[in-house]
Amino acid sequence: MANETWLFGYGSIMWKTGFNFETSELCHANGWTRRFWQASTDHRGTPEFPGRVVTLIASAGERCWGTAYRLPAGEATNIIEDLDYREKGGYDRTALSLTLGDGRTIEAITYIAHPHNPNYLGESPLEDIARQISFSTGPSGSNKEYILELHQCLEQHNIQDKHVKTLAQIIMRQTESIL
Predict the structure, then answer these.
(1) What is d(CA 179, CA 167) in angstroms, rounded to the nearest whole number?
(2) Which of 79, 85, 136, 163 is most buried by a 10 A CB count?
(3) 177 pLDDT higher than 70
(4) Averaged over 16-23, what is the pLDDT?
């Protein structure tokens, strides 16, 4: 249907949805990749000790897998307003084309932290990103929980994401060396 509202989750929305939806499907966005390049000063860190969360980075030839959620028509506006608040820490609501498992293409809403926002950190060595994640905690919990939950969710859906997997492995190794 042309008046459907779809939402693309590629980070915490995949494992901590927090809203009603009619259906969900694995999907991918062509030309995008998931990276821990956005600071979190309001959820997984603080202004003094920011955590790191994912955003989408335009990247030719890449494909970011995630979940498409079809929102209930009568609730879509309120859900989007709630997500606008949840994703306020530097994210912009953006329209994106997604390809569903059956090959259909749909338009969806997602949230992307672009380089112009004040919380954008950009690329850093993976060991540095992992160290920052390991020691950051905010009102929504530890930053380590965020990445490990995302990694587990991707693994459960057989989604290969080298960036997330490598960071999760480094963090688990760092944790083991501390114990």
Answers:
(1) 19
(2) 136
(3) no
(4) 96
Beta strands in 13-131 (DSSP E): 23-40, 51-71, 92-100, 105-112
CB distance 13 to 143 below 8 Å? no
Query: Which residues are the active-site residues?
Result: 87
pTM over 0.85: yes
Residue 35: CB atoms within 10 A of its CB come to: 22
Element (H, E) at 149: helix 143-156
Q: Which tens digit of pLDDT belongs to each residue from 136-166?
A: 999 999 999 999 999 999 999 999 999 999 9
Could you tell me which CATH class the domain 5-178 is placed in?
Answer: alpha beta
State pLDDT tens for residues 126-144. Answer: 999 999 999 999 999 999 9
Phi and psi, residue 85, nearest 5°: -70, -45
Task: Give the orientation angle of helix 126-135 with respect to helix 143-156, to 10 degrees.
Answer: 120
